[in-house]
Write a structure and sequence with these properties.
The protein is an alpha+beta fold. Helices cover about 25% and strands about 40% of the residues.
């Protein structure tokens, strides 16, 4: 009798017939495979109207390689997949038993959906990255570089500081027998291999 009461109580906890966004914790680098498997399982169980959307949010990241701008897609939240669905024991069971899904984020037996504010914030971050990709400077403090301009062309210098907002680096150049910091644009230096 006690077992039946617990089962009914758990079922009540996960029953929600409104569409909400849930977060799934998944095995790393398997996000796309989880989405593919979930779609297939939902289709086979005739639950397409109960699970509307699957996303693994991606942002654009821009870097310079061989003096060319390269835009790559990067996972905003690695190891997580977001779904928009109703929640009941059948959907909960299908999601929880999909390969590479570790858990539905929430309490032990009750998934906790994202708030509208959390979802809006995530989508704004994605939109901002598409409008203005983050520039990543491929250099760091301490790297040995060659200057490709001025009278110091092809001389070796050590990066003292990196300013990613202005896309410049500061190198120490020897002038009049002492080291002088000079600001140089990133496209005017080359990493020494």
């Amino acid at each position: 009798m006690q077992k039946d009461i617990n089962t009914v109580e758990i079922k009540k906890q996960i029953e929600d017939n409104s569409f909400k966004r849930y977060v799934l914790s998944v095995v790393s680098w398997q996000e796309s495979l989880v989405i593919e498997n979930l779609r297939e399982r939902v289709n086979k169980q005739w639950l397409v109207e109960d699970v509307l959307d699957y996303i693994c949010p991606m942002i654009n990241e821009t870097s310079m390689k061989k003096w060319e701008k390269v835009i790559k897609q990067k996972k905003l939240y690695p190891w997580y997949v977001f779904i928009k669905s109703k929640m009941n024991d059948k959907i909960w069971y299908i999601v929880r038993n999909t390969p590479w899904v570790r858990l539905i984020v929430g309490a032990e037996t009750r998934p906790v959906p994202l708030t509208d504010q959390e979802y809006t914030s995530m989508m704004e971050q994605i939109l901002k990255s598409q409008e203005r990709s983050e520039l990543i400077i491929p250099y760091k403090k301490g790297d040995v570089v060659l200057l490709k301009t001025w009278d110091f062309k092809w001389m070796k210098w050590i990066i003292r500081d990196v300013d990613s907002e202005k896309w410049t680096v500061i190198v120490n150049i020897e002038m009049l027998w002492r080291l002088t910091p000079v600001v140089v644009d990133v496209d005017k230096i080359e990493l020494l291999n």
